[in-house]
Structures
1.
Amino acid sequence: MPPPPAGPSQAPYREFTLAALILGVILGAAMTAAFVYISLKLGFGLSGSSVAAIVGFAVLRGVLRRGTIVENNINQTVASGVNTASSGVAFTLPALFLMAANDPELAGFSAAPFVLAATAGSFLGIIVILPLRKQMIEFERLRFPSGIAVASLLRSPGAGVRQAKLLAVGLVIAALHTFMADAERGWLPDEVDFGGLFDAPPWFPLAISISFANFGAGLLSGRGGLPFVAGGVLAWWIISPFAMTSGWVPDPGAPGQEGWQTGYLFFNLLRPVGIGLLIGGALMGVIVALPAIKSAIKGLSATVQARGAATVGPAQELGTRVMTVGLGAAVLVLFGAAMIATDQITVMEAVWIAVVGTIWLALAGLVVAQATGLTDISPLSGMALIAVTLMYFLTQGNIVASIMLGVAVCIGIGQCADMMTDLKTGHLVGSTPRKQQLAQLTVAWVGAPVAIGAVYLFWESPGFGPGTQLGAPQAATLQAIIEGVSAGNVPLDKYAAGIGLGSALGLFPIGGVGVLVGLAMYLPFSITLGYGVGCLTSMGLQRWLGRAWIGSTLVPISAGFIVGEALVSLANALSKL
Amino acid sequence: MLMRWIGLALVIAGTAVAAIAAARPPAGLIEEGRVIRRVDLLGEAAKAARDEYCAALAEAGLSAPDACPPPDAPTGQRPEGEPPPTPAEQLAADRDRIARLRQVPPAGPAPLQTKREAWLTAEATSIEARGEAVTVQTLQPSERLTSWLGLAGLPYAAGLVLIVLGALLSRRAQAAASRGDAGPSRKGAAPLDFGVALREITETVAAMAAEAEAQAAPTQADFDALKARLDALTLSHIEPVVEARDRLKARYGVAGFAAVFGPLSAGERNVNRAWSALVDQHWPEATASLGTAAAYFGEARRELDELISAKPT
């Protein structure tokens, strides 16, 4: 598409404009409704940042012929901020519909408290993570591979022909593979299992996921991703055989049960420890970095920003006052939502829901933002599960209130990860953080009603749940977990052990080790292995060809991998609708 | 160097020991899992036996009083609002149902009767397994915790101690390494002096800002040249400083590091903004961003000077 007219412009540099805001909201709302449908049908969510960036190019630079790189960044920030609600809602709320269908006591719940709670969660997610921008992006320098990929896309008009070609090459390779490896076509594998060659049992996995986005994230992470691989090795090549040979996994006494035993090991022993590790690792990371965080937050105070304005210009970030007011308002809305959710909630319980929910949201948001920053993988469902469990016990088994808070937390932690990813992109293209933060806060209320409305709509027609056209697999899983929790099945021992282990690992001088090991225990090994191959390849190439080559060649190719897979995954999903 | 490797080895060993102990199931959980799985397997076997019987029945063109109800057919209509039966009530109802079916005289040829008997036997076995499962108590969260602590608490604690020791040793090793005047920022590269690097960055960016300011009518070549200089500055000066940040942290502590890296990162972001503005053909914004970047780099340099004067090498 043609660039803006050449020659020095005297008009103000376009950044947070009405055009970017409106385009972002339209794109975000459309993607939210579509992605809710995709989540209900296929069981996974999608990120819309790259789609928004490409449409932004077409509309802002192509049609309007005046868009800038940072203006398009605002457009993708807004679109992805709105769209974050789709995963948050589709992971959680449909479980209540499924449970209410069989339980008259749950039927007839109102949408209003869910919209309120989801909106409060959306604002809270942004507000609680903002003070950590400096810590995560400027001090720790977390990679946020998707953030780098979108930045490469946004910078492509000026990055030179060679880099644009490399981006395109990566994009085409990943797009072709994703198209051909789609489950319905099956022309290429999406996983290669070497286990058969060595007659390895399923509890000693030797399969590797063939995902170019995953591989690309590993390439961008390089050496920093090695603890993630080490965590996978520990979980699947050390703990798993040890547990199997020590009789820690039930033997039902029937042939052919090794697959089930591996699943049992993963879901009952490894995954809960992984969730605990994520929490402990992230918490200790904050404690260790407290002096830097204090300094960053101090920098947000009105006095310091005013002093800075004298030397370096207007404030670059939102001040602490905005955050405090926003936090208070969002907690109040959450309290109100809890009060009107069901008539069985007392004032004290509503206070608990608002306070504990906010604290958990902040902690889980920190975990998810760190995990996304380190690997591009988000343990959203694990964190939402803990939120629902916590609320279940706090409200003495009130399922409506528990799922309501699950919706709020799921959207909130999604916002944490999305805001940080967008701010990383912003850092790389030179956006003003304050404008990005304002843009995301301005539209934080849009996604929740769209996503919840879409769930209601799809419940009426065509309907969803196991055995229907829209299987809602995540909702069915959450339903099963809630039923397990109501029977007292909560792996508190594993969570506690994981938190202790993560906290201890957080003392190691390399940041994020606890989070990375936890994430590896939380995921199937084939994903970790695919990512690890990317890390090792990147390290080898850096040693061989140097750091400059990595920046000029490997980064655009890897960005192309991530963008290509994202775009074709979306096309594949839409084609199935 | 030796201290660093010992620290790392302790952390790895401690993590392995603690993680294995963390994964150990509490007492009772294995048996609970076995019973639940057995119920599932026997349920599946009963369903398969019924399907086989039903297929044979259909093939023979026969209908029977017990003829193949749908898989999950309710045993009786439940009035609206009535709570679902408890597991014990459901078991009793299912036992009655099988007993009633057994009283029905078998019909059809012998192979069909054999299949019917196999189905009823499988159903009865499945129901008895469910009866066994009802008696198994799910461990409550606090019971799980205390049981696990009793079984795995000691090795788990030992693992944690190893990790903490290893982490502390690694931190000491890192601090000792940072006391060297200026270690290499990466293999084969010249040692990086933060003070010199920051001064060069500040001066270069300030010079670029001044040149850009003086340029009243920039041509496309000016845009391209300035963008190329920014690319070169990022690669040769800013990235090496960013890469070597852990040494700064080890030497001046987290707060000192933050004091320098806050403005340094803001400067870097404004260099990126200048680059974007150049791509967008917006010379005034590029000029302004370079000026802001220079101010931030200068601030970073002053912060570093303060740290150095407070803690000279």
2.
Amino acid sequence: MRARVLIRPKAGILDPQGQAVERALPALGFEGVRNVHVGRLIELDVEDPAQLPAMCEQLLANPLVEDYDIQRPDADEQSQNVGPDDPRGISSGSGST
Amino acid sequence: MKFGVVQFPGSCDERDAVAAAARVGDAVLLWHRDRDLRGVDAVIVPGGFSYGDYLRAGALARFSPIMGEVERFARHGGLVLGICNGFQVLCEAALLPGALLPNTSLRFVCRQVDLVVVNAHTNWTRACARGDRLSIPAKHQTGRYWAPDPVLDELEANDQVVLRYATGNGFNGSARDIAGVSNKAGNVVGLMPHPEHAVDPLTGSADGLALFESAALVAAYPTGFAGGHT
């Protein structure tokens, strides 16, 4: 099944990329933008979505410094396979280790 | 004393590391796909851009076959030094605490920096004295050392902060000006600046030799320095 993993810097950790983007937007005339954070998107097809959290913890994210969200767009039909997650097919890890 | 320097695809400082180590002992290259440390007494994980820094710096190198052996070696007390990308690899492998994040400037910076030796008891700094200043080049874009505050407090309490940027020399935003840390036992050390590029006065400084000499001291006097030398 198709899955998406969204990875972003943990709250409270300085994110200079986000700050640079936040400073650039007003220069183009876009006002009122705050709290910009830059992360990564990983898309993947997986046979066993129950393995996604372990994949995130061990490789896709560095849980010390990054949070991740796992999104499964077609999770409705597959929800029996994915454990006690939010019915929208989104699960998160704050991954403190 | 025999040093082994790991070479990953994308490493670029392995030859300087071999040349530096060869000043105090024998030195060989270890290929990332091998599972044999070839009987070395110390392993150096060198600088560069292993696996293109894909995903995160150091994240993929951690899973190469040789790293399983390096982890085993480290957990049995073997001497391991991670330099720059090697430091990132050792943090990703959880052999060292913390993580390296992009410099606050977001720029690749290459400059000579002064480091202060904070702990001269580790296996990689015992040829130094506490408070020594080492002039060593740094060159990286992802060198901002970070760990949660309680972990930083613990590192300081355990004497695991090995090197700091001297006042005015920090440029990457590292927490508490940390340039290098060790594991609890002191056999594994990582640092962002490059001691292997500072081993001959011809290139401006030979201060980096002290790290290699420290490892050679351990090999020569495996128990004779335990905690007693500053």
3.
Amino acid sequence: MALDTDIYSHRDALRGPLALSAALHAALVAVALLVPGNFSSGGEWGNNGSGGAMGASISANLVSGIPLPTNPQANPENVLANESKGLSQSIPQPETKPEEKAIPIPDRNAKPAKKTAPKLAPPSRQKPRELAKADNVVPFGSGGPVATAQYTSFQSGNTNGGLKFDEGGGGSFGNRFGWYTDVVARKVHEAWQNEVNPNVSSAKRVYILFDISRSGAPSHIRVEQSSGIPSLDISAMRAIQRIDTFGPLPQGYSGSYVSVEFWFDYRR
Amino acid sequence: MKRFAVLAVFTLALVLPSLGQDWIRTGTGVGGEKIRIAVPDFKIVADDGQAAALDKTFNDVLFSDLAASGIFDVVSRSFYPLGAIGSPSDVKLDTWAAPPPKAAMLAFGNLGVSSGSLQVQGWLFDAKNAQSPQILAKQYRESASDESARLIAHRFADEIIFRLGGGLNGIAESKLYFISNRSGNKEIWAMDYDGAGQQQITHLRSITLSPRVSPDGTRIAFSSYFKGGPNIMMWSLDLNRLVKFPEFGGTNLSPAWSSDGSRIAFSSSRTGDPEIYVTDQNGNNMRRLTAYHGPDVSPVWNPKTNGQIAWVSGRTGLAQIYVMDSDGTNAQRITDQGYAVSPSWSPNGQLLAFAWIRHYGPGSPGASDIYVMDVASHKWIQLTHDGGHNDFPSWSPDGRHIVYQSTRSGTEQIWSMLADGSQQTQLTFSGSNSQPNWSWK
């Protein structure tokens, strides 16, 4: 109770400051009313005296007279974008990986993309292989038993064939060692088994490429041109893979291997 | 070293045989198109009296070796042009390439005997290639005897077969081991692949069974009653005597070498029931592979991989052929009926030859014949027909021939044939001969 008594007993102390505040506010209003010219005597807003006459002429001259550069990059003195490397090295920007897209679900009926297996060079060969010349390859679809003189044709029972050798490289292999090519043809023919889908009655020609090493072992067997029928391609590959050796290359042949292109025609 | 690449372009039109049995051709290398070869008699260039006889032996052996190889169609001698050929300068290739001989290949040469030594020069010419016909030129010199003339002919034939047969070694120098009773007891005998030079190996005066020569040709494993119950025994061909092999007790039969010569599989009844066991080549480290009630006998290894064993089991009643992995797992039966015994695995691992009575039992007068089965597909083909009791087939090292025993001539004799069943030839004629085994090389 004693505290309440104290607070109420000090109420008279505010009267002095309130009176002073009212007097000062009144004085402020009086000054504002007595000096009005300070806010409006400068004319239009933004024009401070002398600036009004010169403004039009300068602006007209400046706009037409500025020599705009025809090629902004031609200025070699551009400090900010010249071609000198400068002293400081810019930090390479971290590569931002493109956001991975979802793998599309393959359409069941879509044509499967043709696989191209990477051709591995044999480790033993230092020089890149001499690729066959274009005139060495019988064009697609024009093979088969050919009666021209440059082909050695052979016929054996159910098998018809013709073969041709490149004249470059190791020489006229086919002419000199016809017996060896007969051995190869016979052996492949013997090794071929009918593993072809029984629903297939005929197919496009499948081309198989392989090498025969000095010892006679086949290697680098691959499908050069698919027949479009996987079971035929596989059976042709397997025919070569079944063969351990064709017998050593002829003694008179100086090369270290021969490349053989074999094709299979299938009809039931 | 020079490195050349030659691109060969082959075409091959594959027209299916209507029978669809092309797999037998694939597995055996016979049955395809044969090479027409002419072999005129070798010309005598030096003679001290016995050259004519040796020349006849040489020519006959060379001719029959090539004819038996399975890859040649040897042109009959009556088609040959007149005039002896002794050297390349005598050859007029066009007369050989044209009909009537129409030969693709020509093997010729000369033979001379001087001061006790026999010298033979032989050539192989490609008759269709007039510019560079020579494929092979060989020269041999041995002491002058009938045996050397045969040996040289075998070697020259093997050389030709190796070249033209696609790198497979010929079998002209291979041997056959078999059981014969012509000495009064069942002993092991040996002969050349064509039946020549038959000679007795063992003299144990007991009963000897199932000789199996080792891959290196130095030892013969067999089963014998020599010391009581049939035991696996080992004969050294180098030492010409028995060598040590442990006795396991019970009945021990049908040893079989793995193709690396390191292991032997056989059948033993040491636990009462005949089961398949494997030991190393000296009979140590024995391991049992089968554990099933019923007899398990006649194991043979897959010589290509040594990873599989075919054997005969009676676990389901009549004897059937089974195949398992060489650790005893994955056993499966591959014959579906009848009575099948005596498996022999082809050198390339693709085919099994065995004796099969397909219709067995009362009312089914089935004959025991030789069959060949493709191991992967279980397709089979019958090789012998209507010719007595045929059993114990054994593959030649080139996989083109099979030797077997047959009673078609009235008694038990050794026969050989091409692996497609053709060219069946009797090799033995005296006594009773059985259980042939073809050497590995």
4.
Amino acid sequence: MKRWLPPIVIVVVLLGLWQLAASLDVIANALNIEPFLVPSPSEIAQSLWADRSLLLDNGWVTLQEVLAGFALSVVAGVAFAVVLHLSPMLRRAFYPLLIASQTVPIVVIAPILVVWLGFGIGPKLVIIALICFFPITVNTLDGLRSVDPDLLKMMRTLDASRMQTFRRVEGPSALPYFFSGAKIAVAVAVIGAVFGEWAGSSSGLGHLIQQASAQLQTARTFAAVVVLSALAIVLFGLLAVIERRVAWWGPRSTRTP
Amino acid sequence: MRTTSEAPIAEPQSVNRSAGAEQRGARSSPRSGDATTPVAGVEVDGLGHSFGELEVIERVDLRVQPGEVLGVVGPSGCGKSTLLELISGLREPTAGEISVHGEVDSAARLQSCAYMPQRDLLLPWLSAIDNAALALRNRGASRSASRREAHPLFERFGLAGFERTRPAELSGGMRQRIAFLRTLLAGKPVLLLDEPFASLDAITRAEMQEWLAEALAAESRTVILVSHDVEEALYLSDRVIVFGPRPTRAVGELAAPAPRARPRTEIVTSAEFTAARERALEALSRRPR
């Protein structure tokens, strides 16, 4: 319980200050805007309750996009990392391309993807996968390559084939690294979903945010952001729990005596 | 610090050679012998090795009889570990020839040699018994079959009850024992032990030496044991070769004075043992001109 106290205190203090500032119109006056444009935490909470079915429906849409896009990039990212690990030639050939894929500005490519793939889930999956792919591939590849060379020697003297060495030593060694990449990926996947929905969609939290802010419904906008954040935190926490169960030995533990 | 190859520094191949072999023969006969593992000799002729410009091994010639335990001592950095990697077939020498069980090819040597590195290198995600049985699994045995095969060795070597323990929960000495069992269970006729107890504290080390002496007495394997500790090598081996500093060549050779299986303290304090240790230390300290 002690572990949770500091973040709770910080959040409560910040919310309290915000509540105070909003209800005294401090922010609105400072920015020289109408007070109704600055929602207080209590108004956001009211919106969370009042718009719950709206937030739930659109949240569900976004969650599906995030999960599908994330799953896609896990499969593709791990497969790609394994292929690059097993073939030094392919690694040299593809590594620059892998980095280049990260420099593609998502905001620019999202509308093009909508033109190509339509208003359905297609362009969202591609955008999320594009964002998630990089941290997963790079981390997994790093994990596979950082295996203690003495372990590989040992496996050779124990009659291991290339595949056995991969399965018994390299794979397990890379698992904690994969999880670090996956945790980063799942957090940014939520941003990817919002970008995808902004570029063109008729539902989802990103779509809701776009509509609400266009109609100056700032409380609803913030409520949608709260749901988005909660989504990312829950997914991240879920992955951390899975990591502890599946890869409990943690990184670098092969070196501790 | 560069050694010259002229003028042989000691009489490497002559001293006590035949005496050592005889003594060993007398000692190895009561060993219980594992029928499934054939015994094999190791022959090293004119071995030299360089890493690029750096000459590590100048010239090494060795004859290890089947079932013999050969100790190799030398200053750190003299290429002892490299020698074991070369013999095991993990590396190709830049000069000379190595034959294990009559096989010269490095892939064939890899088939006959089990190499125990300095660090235990246990896989943290496997239990003690699965670590020990790694070679069996690699050769296609099922998990349960490999555990069944490894189990008797846990009993025999004082590890009963620790089969399911994770390496992280084991002490340094225990981990080293598991690593030795893993080497043993590879089922190779030749064991190459690279400073197996270098990472342990003095007390655990002495215990482990006694333990290993018993284990080696019970297994008829050909063993090359590398160490920087003269006492350890003399206690555990039938015969000890002393290496000079890099680039390595043998600077002395002596027969170990007493059979290994007696209590360690009794042996290492005997006059015979002390004399042998002094001879070895003297050979080690000889500076090449």
